[in-house]
């Protein structure tokens, strides 16, 4: 389902159509929080397939692969308890720009998931995802220990969910369109501070973030290079 849907959307976006982007479904709530709709893609049985397709989707948006002055898009990835599957939300294009013209997206913190034929379903937000227009590496801001050990934008980064009787860990995904047009996916585990690269369909630990400011320490023989 996800593959055909993403291919259709990518083709429409690259055709130069001036209609509103169908993948942008975000609103600012009265409390100032951003909420995105979902799902844009899924269901997925694992995070590997989710990340691979999210990378293709997000890095093909307008400006998403245009270098340091390009545009970042944010989304949420999450788990539907009743559907027993992972999903990717629609995108947010709300962002900010620093004094050097570098753009970053604002992470949505709320989700409106519409289940297919399931009625109401409970979802667990497991993290944000965004593209990098200029390089494949996480920024120090992505990996900084911003409050206490185990911080994530959605509260604690490791928690027990009674409904699934499972311990979950929240993770950040980052996607980058390489110069040869291939797509690279990475994830940062907020709980363990491990950094992973999706290679040959599997997550490979390539390093860890250390210290308050998120300094990347690669594992010997690995790193950001493919």
Any chance you could write out the topology, listing elements then pairs?
Layout: H1 2-14, E1 26-28, E2 34-38, E3 41-44, H2 47-58, E4 74-80, E5 85-88, E6 95-97, E7 103-105, E8 110-113, E9 123-131, H3 140-143, E10 151-152, E11 155-156, E12 158-161, E13 166-169, E14 171-177, E15 183-189, E16 194-199, E17 202-210, E18 215-218
Parallel strand pairs: 2-8, 9-14
Antiparallel strand pairs: 1-2, 3-5, 4-5, 4-9, 6-7, 10-11, 12-13, 14-15, 15-16, 16-17, 17-18
Please provide a written account of the structure.
- The chain has 226 residues and is mostly beta strands.
- The chain has one domain (2-9, 24-218).
- It has 3 helices and 18 strands.
- The strands form 5 sheets. The protein has a 9-stranded mixed sheet with strand order 3-5-4-9-14-15-16-17-18.
- Strand 10 (151-152) and strand 11 form a beta hairpin.
- The longest helix is centred in the first third of the chain and has 13 residues, at 2-14.
- It is globular, with a radius of gyration of 17 Å.
- The protein starts with a helix and ends in an 8-residue tail after the last strand.
- Mean pLDDT is 87; it is low at 1-16.
Number of strands: 18
Reading side by side through the largest sheet, how are the strands ordered? 3-5-4-9-14-15-16-17-18
What Rg is obtained from the alpha carbons, in whole angstroms? 17 Å
Indicate the mean pLDDT.
Answer: 87
The helix content, as a percent range, equals 10-25%
Low-confidence stretches: 1-16
Please report the number of helical segments.
3
The largest sheet, given as strand count, sense and whether it forms a barrel, is: 9 strands, mixed
Judged by helices, strands and strand pairing, the structural class is mainly beta
End-to-end span in angstroms? Answer: 29 Å
Overall 3D shape: globular
What is the beta-strand fraction?
A: 35-45%
Query: How many structural domains are formed by the residues?
Result: 1
Helix-strand pattern: HEEEHEEEEEEHEEEEEEEEE
